[in-house]
């Protein structure tokens, strides 16, 4: 292709190069946004500072679903507590139990690791949202 006035190729990248580059950037951005790693997020105002479970109710190597707070509280190792959003990242269904050391979603069978909320089994491709938490007295509190 040439410049109409000079008969020389236009300066800079051609339209095809620009479109291909934009397409590659879009794919890279989508891949980064859909990463499966743990994602700690700021809790909502109604959850922040709230006790979501009693330490005694969260077994070591397991966890408990707390429907009234829409969270899952796990204790992957003794004394380590994690709080995750209880909505599956595949279709938003509520997870309903811990099985085989994984948080289970009954809608399509996705499973998430109790230690960090990452995907153990799809179709979900992103980790559960994790809320910062700590033990205060005999309770697990979202901070």
Automatic annotation (TrEMBL):
Q: What molecular function does GO assign, one term?
A: oxidoreductase activity, acting on paired donors, with incorporation or reduction of molecular oxygen
Q: Which Gene3D superfamilies match?
A: Rieske [2Fe-2S] iron-sulphur domain (2.102.10.10)
Q: Where is the Rieske domain?
A: 50-142
| Obligatory cofactor(s) | [2Fe-2S] cluster
One Gene Ontology CC term in the entry: membrane
Annotated SUPFAM superfamilies: ISP domain
Q: Which InterPro entries match?
A: Rieske_2Fe-2S (IPR017941), Rieske_2Fe-2S_sf (IPR036922), Rieske_Fe-S_prot (IPR014349), Rieske_Fe-S_prot_C (IPR005805), TAT_signal (IPR006311)
Pfam families per the UniProt record, alphabetical: Rieske
Keywords assigned by UniProt, alphabetized: 2Fe-2S, Disulfide bond, Iron, Iron-sulfur, Metal-binding
UniProt-listed CDD domains: Rieske
Q: Which PANTHER family match?
A: CYTOCHROME B-C1 COMPLEX SUBUNIT RIESKE, MITOCHONDRIAL (PTHR10134)
Function statement: Iron-sulfur subunit of the cytochrome bc1 complex, an essential component of the respiratory electron transport chain required for ATP synthesis. The bc1 complex catalyzes the oxidation of menaquinol and the reduction of cytochrome c in the respiratory chain. The bc1 complex operates through a Q-cycle mechanism that couples electron transfer to generation of the proton gradient that drives ATP synthesis.
Q: What is this protein called?
A: Cytochrome bc1 complex Rieske iron-sulfur subunit
